């Protein structure tokens, strides 16, 4: 039977691989995203990076489950200045920025969750 530290290490390694792939995919897509949605690629990549950091911190603390609100708060705080600039240039009223940034982070996380895990295959 594997020890808890081995299990956590395996989970951490898996998350590291997943987020490395996600960050690489996001960076590769940045020029295309910037063409389709001018000015958003930098914010997207920053958000992906901060999500990866929050996940890594949770794994390191052994608290990757049940910490969604804490991870969300970390990411929101980290990207808030860049998001505020984007909101100002995009006409998002300051009164709705708190709701918009939370929705943004959740949407980015959803996009990352949509990327198939490394090493998975599809049934034919």
Description:
The protein has one domain (4-113). 75% of the residues lie in helices and 0% in strands. The protein has helices at 4-36, 41-60, 68-90, 97-113. Helix 3 (68-90) packs across helix 4 (97-113). The N and C termini lie far apart (34 Å). The relative contact order is 0.13.
Keywords:
124 residues; 4 helices
Topology:
Elements: H1 4-36, H2 41-60, H3 68-90, H4 97-113
Helix pairs in contact: 1-2, 2-3, 2-4, 3-4
Principal-axes shape call: globular
C-alpha Rg (nearest Å) = 16 Å
H/E series = HHHH
Number of domain modules: 1
Instruction: Classify the helix fraction into a percent range.
Output: over 70%
What kind of sheet is the major sheet?
Answer: none
**Helical stretch tally:** 4
Count the E strands.
0
Strand content: under 5%
Give me the secondary-structure category: mainly alpha
Mean pLDDT: 74
In the predicted model, the low-confidence regions spanning at least 5 consecutive residues are 1-9
- What's the N-to-C terminus distance? 34 Å
Summed up:
This protein has one domain (4-113). It contains 4 helices and no strands.
């Amino acid at each position: 039977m594997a020890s808890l530290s081995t299990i956590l290490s395996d989970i951490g390694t898996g998350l590291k691989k997943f987020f490395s792939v996600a960050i690489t995919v996001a960076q590769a897509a940045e020029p295309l995203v910037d063409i389709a949605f001018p000015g958003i690629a930098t914010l997207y990549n920053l958000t992906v990076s901060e999500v990866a950091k929050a996940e890594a911190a949770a794994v390191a603390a052994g608290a990757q489950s049940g910490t969604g609100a804490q991870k969300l708060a970390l990411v929101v705080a980290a990207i808030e200045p860049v998001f505020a600039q984007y909101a100002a240039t995009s006409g998002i009223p300051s009164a709705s920025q708190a709701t918009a940034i939370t929705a943004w982070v959740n949407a980015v996380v959803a996009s990352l969750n949509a990327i198939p895990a490394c090493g998975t295959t599809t049934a034919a």
